[in-house]
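Sat 14:20. Reprocessing the chain from the morning session after the first attempt stalled halfway. Input below, unchanged.
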Amino acid sequence: MDDEAGRRRPSLVADRGGDRRDAWTLGARALTAAVAHTRGPEITLADVLELAECGDPGCLRVLVDAGRTVGRALSGICPVLDPKLVIIGGQLAAAGAPLLDGVREILARRLPPAVSQGVTIVAGSLGDRAEVLGAVALATRGTSAHLLAR
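Finished this time. Tokens:
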């Protein structure tokens, strides 16, 4: 999506043909910037995730807060789409429990119990392959139906 000046603006949901990695790159920068004042400007997302895994309170807080942000976005979507499963994918999935707990906390607080208790939040395991494997699954499903119809 472009702003008024014609510059590319990142969004949480990419339009068709957009690059979702733009949105995550800015998210990774925000996460690392949040701990850079105590850990130095050269800290990477991998460093933040590793420190959180070792129990660093600042990094854990940043990941929980990021999960809460995702939870706020989902709290507007879940009542409409009524998903049974939400998969957090990409590099974000590597954040694990702190991020997922933040998402769950906000959904439990903002959604009626009938909606929030029916949604399972999990980390994806397919990584960068998720989109390609999803496309292959859709193509295979469509091809199989087409072949069986003849």
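The CA atoms of residues 96 and 117 lie 20 Å apart.
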